[in-house]
């Protein structure tokens, strides 16, 4: 058991889920703000954000990100806003076009990986550019570790001064062709990160039906966790999740099971090493 507060991140939309998969997936900025506010009130301290066009198609539009940031700062005071720089919504420098808005955090994949039908391409020069943009704007990266080499690369980048510490690393588990949801693999990743970057903080995301399994592993092992409709649109095999808040509530219940307090946004900022809310 750990009495360390557990940070819950809610991944509100993503680039893949559609209204056809679950009508609760928030698409417009207004829907995203309303959904995030409910998740914030349920216990989420971080909002991981993609944006969409109103027709549901993916985009990296800085204008959309700006509207979302404005809404979240108004309706979710103190919540940590984390922008996605993922490759499903744009290519090259377009992926970092929203960073001048200075969110609290941004995702950073430091290496490439196979996805179900494509290569998620993160070439070294693009990774270095994104990391440099975050460093110069005092944006905390969340390292998206899809592979063990990504953990070692993040640590090497920190040692070289290209990332500031302590690192915040997320193990992404359950994407087809990438890291599986396997308990021994999970434990090995945690041990490895603790060995090579003992001051790092970590969390994990379980994709699809494995979401709650990974949430429980994280909570039970003293880490932080992620939930939300980006990764999983169901409460269980028979029922769609009615909201992002409903998934956050399940994570809160698991924290209670293991006697872990749920981190407030202020506590999450202190743990991660962020400044006060804007």
Distance between the terminal alpha carbons, to the nearest Å?
Answer: 34 Å
Overall number of structural domains = 1
Order of helices and strands: EHEEEHEEEEHEHEHEHEEEHH
Which sheet architecture does the biggest sheet show? 8 strands, parallel, barrel
Which CATH architecture would you pick? Alpha-Beta Barrel
Overall spatial form:
globular
The portion of residues assigned to helices is 25-40%
Residue-averaged pLDDT, rounded? 96
Kindly describe this structure.
This protein has one domain: Alpha-Beta Barrel (TIM Barrel), CATH 3.20.20.70. The protein is built from 8 helices and 14 strands. The longest helix has 14 residues, at 29-42. The protein has an 8-stranded parallel barrel with strand order 1-2-5-6-9-10-11-12, surrounded by 8 helices. Strands 3-4 form a two-stranded antiparallel ribbon. Strands 7-8 form a two-stranded antiparallel sheet. It has helices spanning 29-42, 62-75, 124-136, 148-159, 183-196, 211-220, 244-257, 265-272; strands spanning 8-11, 46-49, 51-52, 58-59, 80-83, 105-109, 113-114, 119-120, 140-145, 168-173, 201-206, 224-227, 234-236, 239-240. The chain is an alpha/beta fold. A hairpin with a 4-residue loop joins strand 7 and strand 8.
Blueprint (SSEs and pairs):
Blueprint: E1 8-11, H1 29-42, E2 46-49, E3 51-52, E4 58-59, H2 62-75, E5 80-83, E6 105-109, E7 113-114, E8 119-120, H3 124-136, E9 140-145, H4 148-159, E10 168-173, H5 183-196, E11 201-206, H6 211-220, E12 224-227, E13 234-236, E14 239-240, H7 244-257, H8 265-272
